[in-house]
Design a protein that fits this description.
Shape of chain A: globular
CATH architecture of the largest domain in chain A: 3-Layer(aba) Sandwich
CATH class of the largest domain in chain A: Alpha Beta
Number of strands of chain A: 12
Largest sheet of chain B: none
Order of helices and strands of chain B: HHHHHHHHHHH
Distance between the termini of chain B: 31 Å
Order of helices and strands of chain A: EEEHEEHEHHHHEHEHEEHHEEH
Mean pLDDT of chain A: 85
Number of strands of chain B: 0
CATH superfamily of the largest domain in chain A: P-loop containing nucleotide triphosphate hydrolases
CATH topology of chain B: MetI-like fold
Radius of gyration of chain B: 22 Å
Structural class of chain B: mainly alpha
Structural class of chain A: alpha/beta
CATH superfamily of chain B: MetI-like
Number of helices of chain A: 11
Strand order of the largest sheet of chain A: 6-7-8-3-9-10-12-11
Low-confidence stretches of chain A: none
Largest interface: A-B, 35 and 23 residues
Shape of chain B: elongated
Strand content of chain A: 15-25%
Number of domains of chain A: 2
Helix content of chain B: over 70%
Largest sheet of chain A: 8 strands, mixed
Number of domains of chain B: 1
Oligomer: heterodimer
C-alpha cells in the first residue's frame, strides 16, 4: 500500500483541569490512506473528537494540550508547524465538518459570505469569482436554487441544508482530507442518508480521504473502508469494515456489535455492555476495559496489552490474544 | 429618514438601502413595542430640538435681563426666567445639546475602550485577562460618582473633563459585558468552524466575535446614555461639569435650588428635561433588549 496521507503516531492530548490531568487521547496511532474512508468509532468521551481536533490543532488551550506524539500529514509533522503554516493547511488541505449544523454557522452572516471566507482565506479570488465558486460549491452539495440560497441566513435553512452548507464550506478549497465529526448525529434519518451519500460521493469523485468520527455502527458499515475502535483514549481494535463486523476480536468491539438492534431477530432485550466508561487519569494501569469485560483475567488489571496484528491489517489490543497465541504455539 | 438619525445615539443599525436579515427582524420586533417606539420618538424629538436649538429659542440663552428676574411662566417666557432674568425655555433647549452630546460621546468613548479591553481580555485570556479584569475591579471598587469627581478634580472642572471622567468611569461596565460575551462566543461551534477553515485570529475577531457582541453593547449603550446624562447633570450640579454661562441642566438645578420654594419653575423645567431624556433612553434601551436578545438566545 502507498504511504498514508495522514499518520497519527502515539498521539497524547491531555486536559489539565482542577480534578487533575486527564489523558483524553492516550497514545493513539491511526493512519488514513489517500482516497480512503476511515471510521473512528467509540462511545462519548472516548477521545475520538479530541483526536480529530488535535489533527487540526484546534484543541482549546487551556485546558487542553497535545503533550506527545506526532501527526504526519503528507510527511510533514503538523505538530511542529508554525501557526501561520497551520492556517494554510486548515480548510485548505484538511478541513472539518462538525456535529451541530445549527450552531456551526454564524447567525449574522449569509451562507455565501461564510463560504467566501473559506475561499478567500486560501485562494486570492476576486469578489465575482468567489461568488461563482460559492454557487458551484452549493450546487455540488446538492442545494437547490444555489443562486438565491447564497444570500440567505442560516436561520432560514433547515438542519440538513445547513449541514450541506458546512460541507460546501469544507470542500470549497478542495481538501485532500475531510474530517467529519459526527456529521449526521443531529439530523433525522432520511437527511442522514442524504448527507452520508454526499460525503461518499465526494470521496469517490474527488478522491478526498475521509476520517469519519461516529458512534453509529450503521454509519460505519455504510461508509467506511477501515475502522478504528476507540475506548477510553486508546485504539482497541483496528481493521477493515469486514474484519470488524465479521470477526470482531476485542471484547469491547464484540459488545458494540452485539448491542446493535437487528431487524430479523425476535424482540428481546437489547444487549448492552455493563458498567461505565472509567474516569480517565494518568496513573491508570492495565486494560481500560477490564472492569466491563466478560473475559477479564487478573492480569488485565496489571498489564496494558499491546495493539497486536492478528491478521493482515487487523489489530486488536487484548491479553486474550496473547494467551491464545501462546496456546497455538505450544 | 428618521430612524437613521437615531443611529448616532446608539440606536439599531437599520439602514434602508441594505436590508440585512437579523437586523431587519430585530427592527420589526422593536417596531411592535409601543413603549420602545415612544422612547425612540422622544429621543428623535430631543435630537431635533438639540440640532435646532438656536432656531427654536425665543431668546439668547445667556442674555441677562435683570429687571425680569424669576418671572413665572408667561406668554413671553413660556418656562419663566431664572435669577439672572435669562429665558429658561431657551436655556433648556440649548441644554439638550449639552446633555445629548455628553451622554452620547461619553458612552461612545466608554464603548470603544471597554470593547477593546473586553475583547483582549476575553479572547486572549491568561495574564492579559488577569490584568485587565483586575483593572476593571479597581475601577468598580470606587463609587462611580466619587471616581468621576476625583478625575474632574485632577483634570480641572469643565464639560470636556466631565465627559472624559464619565467615559472612564463607565469603561468597566462595557468591558466586562464584552469580555463575558466573548468568552461565551469563543466556545461557539462557528468559531471553531472558522478556525477549521484557516481564518486568522484577526479575521475571527472582526467577522465573528465583534458582530456577535454588538447587540449587548447596543442595549447597554442606550441605557448607558441615560446614566451618563444623569452623571453629567450630577457633576454639573456639583459645579464640576459645565461652567457658567453654559445652560447645562444639572448646573441650572444647582443654581436655582435656593429658589425652589419661591420660583419652582426654575428647577422644575431643567429637572423634567433630565427626567424625560433619561426616561426616553431607558424605554428605548429596554425595547432594544427585548427586540435583540431573544434572537440571540435562540
Amino acid at each position: 500500500m502507498t504511504q498514508p496521507i495522514l499518520q497519527i503516531e502515539d498521539l497524547r492530548t491531555h486536559f489539565f483541569t482542577d480534578r487533575g490531568e486527564i489523558p483524553a487521547v492516550d497514545g493513539v496511532s491511526l493512519h488514513v490512506h489517500a482516497g480512503e474512508v476511515l471510521g473512528v468509532v467509540g462511545e462519548s468521551g472516548c477521545g475520538k473528537s479530541v483526536t480529530s481536533l488535535s489533527v487540526l490543532r484546534l484543541i482549546p488551550s487551556p485546558p487542553g494540550k497535545i503533550v506527545g506524539g506526532a501527526i504526519r500529514f503528507k510527511e510533514r509533522d503538523i505538530l511542529r508547524l508554525k501557526e501561520r503554516e497551520m492556517r494554510g493547511i486548515r480548510g485548505n488541505a484538511i478541513s472539518m465538518i462538525f456535529q451541530e449544523p445549527m450552531t456551526s454557522l454564524n447567525p449574522l452572516f449569509t451562507v455565501g459570505q461564510q463560504i467566501r471566507e473559506a475561499v478567500s482565506a486560501h485562494r486570492g479570488l476576486g469578489k465575482k469569482e468567489a461568488r461563482a465558486h460559492t454557487v458551484d460549491m452549493l450546487r455540488k452539495v446538492g442545494i437547490p436554487r444555489p443562486e438565491s440560497i447564497i444570500d440567505e441566513y442560516p436561520h432560514q435553512l433547515s438542519g440538513g441544508m445547513r449541514q450541506r452548507v458546512m460541507i460546501a464550506m469544507a470542500i470549497s478549497c478542495g481538501p485532500e482530507l475531510l474530517i467529519a465529526d459526527e456529521p449526521t448525529t443531529a439530523l433525522d434519518v432520511t437527511i442522514q442518508a442524504q448527507i452520508l451519500d454526499l460525503i461518499r460521493r465526494l470521496n469517490e469523485e474527488n478522491g478526498t480521504a475521509v476520517m469519519m468520527i461516529t458512534h453509529d455502527l450503521g454509519v460505519v458499515a455504510e461508509m467506511c473502508d477501515r475502522v478504528a475502535v476507540m475506548y477510553a483514549g486508546k485504539v482497541v481494535e483496528e481493521g477493515t469494515v469486514r474484519h470488524i463486523f465479521k470477526n470482531p476480536l476485542h471484547p469491547y468491539t464484540q459488545g458494540l456489535i452485539q448491542s446493535v438492534p437487528r431487524m430479523n431477530e425476535q424482540r428481546r432485550r437489547l444487549f448492552s455492555i455493563p458498567g461505565h466508561v472509567p474516569i480517565l487519569h494518568t496513573q491508570m494501569r492495565g486494560c481500560r476495559f477490564a472492569d466491563r469485560c466478560q473475559h477479564v483475567m487478573p492480569a488485565c488489571y496489571e498489564q496494558l496489552p499491546e495493539l497486536v496484528e492478528l491478521e493482515a491489517g487487523h489489530r486488536s489490543r487484548c491479553l486474550l490474544h496473547e494467551v491464545k497465541f501462546k496456546e497455538d504455539v505450544v | 429618514m428618521g430612524h437613521i438619525t437615531a443611529n448616532t445615539s446608539g440606536g439599531p443599525v437599520v439602514t434602508a438601502d441594505k436590508p440585512s436579515g437579523p437586523w431587519r427582524d430585530a427592527w420589526r420586533a422593536f417596531r411592535k413595542n409601543k413603549m420602545a417606539m415612544l422612547g425612540l420618538s422622544m429621543i428623535l424629538l430631543f435630537v431635533l430640538i438639540a440640532l435646532l436649538a438656536p432656531v427654536l429659542s425665543p431668546y439668547d440663552y445667556k442674555a441677562q435681563e435683570l429687571s425680569n428676574r424669576l418671572q413665572p411662566p408667561s406668554a413671553a417666557h413660556w418656562f419663566g426666567t431664572d435669577d439672572l432674568g435669562r429665558d429658561i425655555l431657551s436655556r433648556v433647549l440649548h441644554g439638550a445639546r449639552i446633555s445629548l452630546w455628553v451622554g452620547t460621546f461619553s458612552v461612545v468613548g466608554s464603548i470603544i475602550l471597554g470593547t477593546l479591553l473586553g475583547i483582549l481580555a476575553g479572547f486572549f485570556g491568561r495574564w492579559l485577562d488577569m490584568i485587565i479584569s483586575r483593572l476593571f475591579d479597581i475601577l468598580l471598587a470606587f463609587p462611580s460618582i466619587l471616581l468621576a469627581i476625583a478625575i474632574v478634580a485632577i483634570l480641572g472642572p469643565s464639560l470636556q473633563n466631565a465627559l472624559l471622567a464619565i467615559a472612564i468611569v463607565n469603561i468597566p461596565t462595557y468591558g466586562r459585558l464584552v469580555r463575558a460575551k466573548v468568552l461565551s462566543l469563543k466556545n461557539e461551534e462557528y468559531i471553531t468552524a472558522a478556525r477549521a477553515i484557516g481564518m486568522k485570529n484577526s479575521g475571527i475577531l472582526l467577522h465573528h466575535i465583534m458582530p456577535n457582541s454588538l447587540t449587548p453593547i447596543i442595549v447597554q449603550g442606550t441605557l448607558g446614555i441615560a446614566t451618563a446624562i444623569i452623571e453629567a447633570a450630577a457633576l454639573g450640579f456639583l459645579g464640576l461639569g459645565a461652567q457658567p454661562p453654559a445652560p447645562e441642566w444639572g448646573k441650572m438645578l444647582s443654581d436655582s435650588r435656593q429658589f425652589i420654594a419661591t420660583a419652582p419653575w426654575t428647577v422644575m423645567f431643567p429637572g423634567l428635561s433630565i427626567m424625560f431624556t433619561v426616561l426616553a433612553f431607558n424605554l428605548m434601551g429596554d425595547g432594544l433588549r427585548d427586540a435583540l436578545d431573544p434572537r440571540m438566545k435562540s
